[in-house]
Amino acid sequence: MVVSNPPRAAAPPTAVMPERKRLTLKDLAAEIDVHYSTISRVMNPATRHLVAEDVAARILEVAEARGFRPNRIAAGLRTQRSGLVGVVLPDISNPVFPPILAGIESVLAQQGYVPIVVNAGTDKSRQRFVIDQMIGRQVEGLVLATAERDDPILAYCLKQHIPVVTVNRGDDTGRVSCVVSDNLLAMRQTVDHLVGLGHRRIGHIAGPATLSTGFLRREGFLQAVKRHRLRRGEWQVMEAASYSREAGRLACEQLFAAFPQVTAIAAGNDLVAMGCYDYLREHGMRCPEDVSVVGHNDMPFADALTPPLTTVRIAVHEMGEEAARLLLRKIDKPASDAVTVQLTPQLIVRGSTAAPRAAE
Amino acid sequence: MVVSNPPRAAAPPTAVMPERKRLTLKDLAAEIDVHYSTISRVMNPATRHLVAEDVAARILEVAEARGFRPNRIAAGLRTQRSGLVGVVLPDISNPVFPPILAGIESVLAQQGYVPIVVNAGTDKSRQRFVIDQMIGRQVEGLVLATAERDDPILAYCLKQHIPVVTVNRGDDTGRVSCVVSDNLLAMRQTVDHLVGLGHRRIGHIAGPATLSTGFLRREGFLQAVKRHRLRRGEWQVMEAASYSREAGRLACEQLFAAFPQVTAIAAGNDLVAMGCYDYLREHGMRCPEDVSVVGHNDMPFADALTPPLTTVRIAVHEMGEEAARLLLRKIDKPASDAVTVQLTPQLIVRGSTAAPRAAE
DNA sequence: CTGAAAGCGCTTACAG
DNA sequence: CTGAAAGCGCTTACAG
Questions:
Q1: Where's the HTH lacI-type domain (chains A, B) (predicted)?
Q2: How does pLDDT run across A305-327, given as a tens digit for each residue?
Q3: Nearest-CA distance from B344 to chain A in Å?
Q4: H helices present in A183-228, as ranges
Q5: What is the DSSP letter of B293?
Q6: Does B130 have pLDDT greater than 50?
């Protein structure tokens, strides 16, 4: 690491630049000849009509010229509305989250809200700490992407009477609104596709059962396998310790140990699918010739993997938008019921799935 | 999209739950028998010693039991410190930014700051709007990942006397601190590698020259090519309209039109490199057998592309951390000079580069 | 060691 | 239509 201090640019003419304080209503009122409450009324479009047009025009002009921006924080203190919403992510480096975040932000912005985003990891006490911070900052509501099926954090938020919405992952108890993708349907699509190709030995590498996505996708897999009348010994489920590439590789190894005849794998998500790729490659098996793999999420660049990954596309951006809408509604009407919004996923068939070898 | 309203859970026993207002110092003071200013002193570790130990203990106990969390916003109004820092991103879905953001957040958190993140796109007037919003929210400083080489937005921030730091991209004028990767060195590493493999016809697909990364990587390419005494006709530069896969594909097409003999491409970044992959594949050329490709950034999953991408790894997380540190310093000492922190990149050789065909 | 008061920058009834 | 006042929830000199 190199640090370079460029030579000081020509110093300001006369010693210290006065640390220009931000303008306030009163400063402006002193310049124009009006009471500062009048300026306040003009700055807010909703109350502007209370002021005579010519006065308003003059005020606006000066405000613009002087670059006056009312202090939203002071306003928020007075009105009891911070305009802040907290977004709690388990891991922003997981490529599912950025588009969700973008969706959230886009609808919040329309309503004059701004998100405070934190990476809270998976540790519950850290999550709680982070949420306390946000509450201290007067967030009006919370979007949690960290929810578990029976999440103490959710109970905590509920106790605080703070509006909460869960995104991507749901909560089993139905206490809070959530927007999720239809995981049962997704797994049905996945298994239908695999069976349609001729596969009869199918493995599922599930995500953690503590997460609704892990639990529900496993359920969906089970239901689908039953629908196709696969028998015991024709399918197998292995749980990965987390939604990560490495955990996927490990679980894939265990799957092959328990079920060596497997010809197709429905992975809990795309990262897990990548772990499967890693395992297969290490063990000289080709995908899809020897083993087919299906992912979940259709993360960015899933199409650019080798082979391009067949996966389930979930409506990430829309998911974020919808979560923000739900939260805004809840903030507006705290008494409104919890709602579950379920988005329809779509199987994207690419190069990682093919018919099993003729040998079958 | 399916929306389901679960049947109302057993309604709360007696009609409306009183919208529990958040506790304040005064509420607490009423419960205990002290003045609220005393509680204030106890809640802040720095002033706690001013209060008698037994009183402090009792206050802490009640505060904890009642889940009291002081209103940071009100405190900020009083102390003129919001504890907020604005982070302006061009596009959070570009995989370089999440790790940078994570780095920023991690050091901010240590100091009790919290980031407000916005996706501001590339449009300058939108960026300005967004920054005005943030200033209105009293951010104490700004981290810009959107900087251009001579950026009016930067000038604007400077005029407002708001502490600013630029990350990933620098600004030519040296007016603000920035943390960047050493782009000249990176391109030297890239060209050395390619020449070392035996390539003598090398193309560079540059990022936009308005961005420091685009400009400097092009400079670095030029310098490197000169060092190796490649002659005119042995190298070529083509500029992509943006750092995107599609723009990369297009520029690659133009490169081949202008310079069909090219055997190796140094791409402006990994997305552009992916665009090159797309073009090559469409036109029946194999990478690296027919054409070698080098990326820049080592974004997540660059190793999982086909072929695994040889690319320059930049220290993204560290970049974010350092930017946050620089900003915090500037907030602390507004008079401190602008500093450029340059992180050392590292060429990661993978499967997308090889010796040119023997034919040479 | 603790209390009482002023004030951060706003909004918004309340008068006039 | 405009002004004067109170108050949002804190912090922090200033007394005592």
A1: 23-79
A2: 989 999 999 999 999 999 999 99
A3: 6
A4: 183-197, 212-227
A5: E
A6: yes
Q: Please state whether strand D lies within 7 Å of residue B35 at its CB atom.
A: no
**Interface touch A116/B116, C-beta < 8 Å:** yes
Amino acid letter for position A120 = A
Strand partners, A86: A116, A142
Dist. CA B52–CA B226, nearest whole Å: 73
Domain A78-181+316-344 of CATH type 3.40.50.2300: yes
What CATH number labels B183-314? 3.40.50.2300
Matching CATH topology for B79-181+316-344 and B183-314?
Answer: yes
**Contact yes or no for B1 and A342 at CB 8 A:** yes
Query: A146 - beta bridge partners?
Result: none
User: Domain limits of chain A?
Assistant: 25-70, 78-181+316-344, 183-314
Residue numbers in chain A where pLDDT is lower than 50: 5-18, 359-360
Contact, A314 vs A343, CB < 8 A?
Answer: yes
User: Are the C-beta atoms of A176 and A148 separated by less than 8 Å?
Assistant: no
Within 7 Å: CB of B70 and strand D? yes
Out of 3.40.50.620, 3.40.50.2300, 3.40.50.150, 3.40.1670.10, the CATH code matching B79-181+316-344 is 3.40.50.2300
Residue A232 CB burial class (10 angstroms; 0-12, 13-18, ≥19): exposed
